[in-house]
Amino acid sequence: MTDTRTTVVVITHDRCAELLRTLDRLAELPERPEVVVTDNGSTDGTATAVARHHPGVRLLRPGRNLGAVGRNLAIRQVRTPYVAFCDDDSWWAPGSLSGAADLLDRYPAVGTVTARILVEPDGTEDPIVEELRDSPVPRPGWLPGPALGSFLAAATVLRTDAFRAAGGFHPRLWLGGEEELLAADLAADGWWLMYADHLTVHHHPSRARDSTVRRSHGIRNTLWFTWLRRPLGVALRRTLHLARTVPRDTASLRAFAEATAALPWVLRERRVLPPEVEARLRALEPAQRDSTARSYTG
Description:
single chain, Spore Coat Polysaccharide Biosynthesis Protein SpsA, Chain A, glycosyltransferase activity, Glyco_trans_2-like
């Protein structure tokens, strides 16, 4: 059942064992997708191991850790109409890549398709799935699944041309909620983002992660996105809400300090979203206030 419509892009950094497990799973998929890996400056022998065990994988070695921009680098190599993102500790279920491509083929106004996430080794649903399934974003009658205001990179298939036209991941955001800005820009370009419950991604969280740094970047990136794209009143309210609700610790303080220090470039790049896209984001705000799955507690 080889399917040539989708290329899988993976970024990795010093998680050789997890990456090899993911590549093993991707190699077993009936779709037989092309796979591009950006090794973000690993020092644990990742590149050598990939070349030895998966010589068919296209391996990019920028020589430093580019964060999410490693995906931008990989997509320069993509020649298929669709691209599926995948972290080095996650993998797509058999048939799900083809299922996402079928949706994108059938609905030309859909730009991204996000799958259900099962957390391994127990196979339980990630808490975020319930929020995706019950998304309050208003959707047109033709959309075959819930409309989303953003997407999760490790569980999403996108139109390659739409990703490129929107500019890809912003280089300053690095990692941690980096999808939110790109998602808004895709919506501003006229694309719909959707969730598909019949598609599945497996996630086996790596132990090699710094959750405190990731949380700090998540808060910072949320602030940057808010200041870059939301109307002034909304941006002020969202900033005050975050200041009241994030944990009172060093990571949060660092996030606000980094965000504030970047105000000159943020103001230069500020571009408020079209009203129809802003309306979608406002529909999400009550759910975001009550969310436990996406809280900034690490």
